[in-house]
Amino acid sequence: MKVAVVGGGIAGTAAAWALRRGGADVTLFHDRAGASALYAGALDVTGWEEDPEDESVEPELVAFATAFEAWTVGTRGARVATYDGVLRPARGVDSALLDLRALAGRVVFVPDAPVDGWDAGSLVRALGASRLAVQSRISFRVARVAGMVDAAEGSGSPFDVAALHDDATRVERLAECLAQGEPSADAWLLGPWLGTRPGVADRLRQLLGKPCGETTSPPGGAAGARFEASRDSLLVGCGVHVRRTSVGSVERHAHRFRVAPRSRTATVDDSGFDVVVLAIGGLASGLSMEENGFGASLEGPFSVGIGHRAVGRPSTTHGVDVAALGLHALESVGIVSEGSAVSGEAGLFVAGDCVMRRPRTALEAASAGIAAASLARQG
Amino acid sequence: MVEVLAPATPDVDVVVIGGGVNGTGVARDAALRGLRVALFERNDIAFGASGNSSGMIHGGPRYLTYDPDVTYTSCLDSGHIQRIAPHLLFRIPFLMPVQKSVASGVELLGLDAFFDLYDKYQPLKRGKPHTRLGGDDLRKLEPGLHGDLAGGIGFDEWGIDGARLCIGSAVDAAENGAEIRTHCTVTEILRREDGRVSGVRFRDRFTGETGARLAKVVVNATGAWSPITQSLGKVKSLAARVRPGKGIHVFFDRRLTNYAIAAKAIDGRQVFLEPWQNMSVIGTTDDDFFGDLDECFATADEVRYLVQAVARVFPAVTRARAIGTWAGVRPTLHEWGPNEDALSRDHRVVDHAADGADGLYSLVGGKLASYRLFAEEATDTIARRLGNSTPGRTHTSPLPGGDEQLDPVALAMEHGIDATVATRLEYRHGSRARRVIERMKKSPKETHVVCPCEPVTEAEIRYVVQHEWARTVDDVARRTRLGLGACGGMRCAARCGAILAEMHGESPAAGRNHALEFLEIGRKRRIAAVGPEQARQEALALAATRSSLGLRKDEAVR
């Protein structure tokens, strides 16, 4: 079976991985970054306000998270500190984050680094007053740490500081500075500075010999970059063909789909696909993140056609709420809704934000991708 | 009802209700004459029309044909404002292109004659005489101009930050002994048995604190809110009626042109695209408004109307990135019948003695450019009544920071701060930029740029909280333009909220709540202007930001 997955966010990646495990020949199309690059590094099944304490994570999702280098999904859930000073539960984390579940009754130090927007004093006050911190008697303190970043390096975004630590010698320097700054620390909570690729935090833990890690990332922070790095290595590792191009249309000719890039100069795959999984975020507007953060593509929406006849735009202007559009909104454009994933009449499936009422959580997106893959395998 | 407050001595001479340009203007003028003043503002200084104007103290060539007095007084007073607050003024050169048509020759001649007349007023405000331009000249000045241009006119206006102007007046009033209370609503205008007005009751909308200030005179300077304010004293009067006219502006993430461009909307109304501070702005609409004055936002239709008009002469505007809107309600003098545009921009001081409410005055009408004159007229009336014969000196006494002009680049070099930071700081605070820099010297941590779009440093945030009554993130934004850039506060609201909470002794959760409230207001201001794709992207970024700030129910503000 030849499958095209359109979209390289969390849902698309999970779908491609699951289809590949099932033996399909998978090509994944993606271009630029979307909602997944904005995720903060905390992994939840439902929104964290909904108290996820009792959630269990389905086995296939655990298998995906295990294959995914950047993630750690435990059976008991984690506790993470947000960039704005709230301690919150999560089902799993980006491995660079500090998991505070095991730190009840301990003292966590926060370095006073000269990074723009980082105020260790107010972060410590906010975290210390947070409900979960009070319950588990975790206390936070500011540590004066000299030399970890200089003022010029810290005047950019937290992302720039993360990029600095992709360099192994800088990680060693960071470990030395922290060790000297507060030798008696039980654990260290840092900003989202530990690399734009997975592995930096683990190296730091090794060097320091104690728990340390990041807060969540603000939008456009390092967690999104590590997601992308892990995705790229996972897809290559499991043998998915990756095409970095923006898809302009998906058309069905007889029983096969033709996936055409938006750009006329990009080469087109000659052979068609038996199955297409759309994991294009939202309801398929022509939206994307520019490389430097906040921006939007001004190109038109993605279109789906049968034969050469466009069947309309599977797109709304603002919404990701299919229910509000009427349950069968997607049917009018040839896509049939079925449970958490949406399947086409013959081989067209949708996963991810396409079928959600709100910006979804990371594990929810992965779960939808796996569900779409499983429907696709059943044919 | 009528209340007896017999032999009580007044706390102050004058209570001013309203912290717009007229209210702060009267408070300053009265305080400078040695009168004791208390000012109450229900929302924030410059919350209404004053902080949401076109940001120009123009002479109003538009009014020349039917209200030449307004043009004269506006130009004259614009000159005074330049003298007392030179740091707040910036020149906006205007281009008025005329498309080639059978009538274009006549139209150009007419315009030329019209601006000949306007030129007579220009020297009053140090303006330059108009220039007649050919089509090629226009295109050389502004290559983005569209169409077959017959020629046009270049003329000259002044831009200003209306909110900073109001803050300046309020600070000066306070430094001359006035009591200024923001987010503090007047709940009742007190009247004696004989109907005379004797003071006000107030309630602080944040702390719930209530109290009264007895006064000899009460001034209602609440703009479009005037009829509501008047009813707090049970005054029934038609003399102070206003016809509220909503005006919106759309702003962009950067300067699109170096010249302001006049354009005609689909209904023939004059609109413009102007470079303003570090962005471009399109304005404005004028429509009767009947909604909630505290909740006035632009709609997508209004935005489309403006952008479409400008696109006819400057098509690139449709590809530019609109990032927000502001909306205000003008307190235009009431009149039945005429179209909104044709209503007079004149002003009037109404003495409510005729309504049996001796001691109450209402300020109705007016415009930003002539606020000082209006405040002076009102204060003259009040001072005369109170037996104070000190002449007004608001036209010679500088506003805070207006006493000396600093060179921002020299400032940046001298103190090792970023030149853009110094330039923006000097613009907003004039010579008082030194006081903000003083803070940075004492505490180097405060040099941090909290809002990179504007940019705004931590020192400036702390300064406006301490000295300019900022109590919410939105208040800080009004004073510093924090969070009004392309990212919509996504990068700075949380930090600013934390600083506010710390300075006001509130919990960290309250700080996060400040941030969330600002992001919510920001969303309402932005949603009408941003396109669907950007709106969706912002919704995602907002969701991500909220998940970091997110207040659980049990972690609500304590």
Overall pLDDT of chain A:
77
Rounded radius of gyration of chain A (Å): 22 Å
Biggest sheet layout of chain A = 7 strands, mixed
User: Helix share of residues of chain A?
Assistant: 25-40%
Mean pLDDT of chain B: 91
* SSE run of chain A: EHEEHEEEHHEHHEHEHEEEEEEEEEH
Poorly predicted ranges of chain B: 1-6
Q: In angstroms, what is the radius of gyration of chain B? A: 24 Å
- Beta percentage of chain A is 15-25%
Query: N- to C-terminal separation of chain A?
Result: 10 Å
Q: Helix- and strand-based class of chain B?
A: alpha+beta
Roughly how many Å apart are the termini of chain B?
37 Å
- Helical segment count of chain B: 16
Return residue spans of chain A where pLDDT drops below 50 for at least 5 consecutive residues. 283-345
The DSSP helix count of chain A reads 9
User: How many strands appear in the DSSP assignment of chain A?
Assistant: 18
Note the beta-strand portion of chain B: 15-25%
Can you count the beta strands of chain B?
A: 19
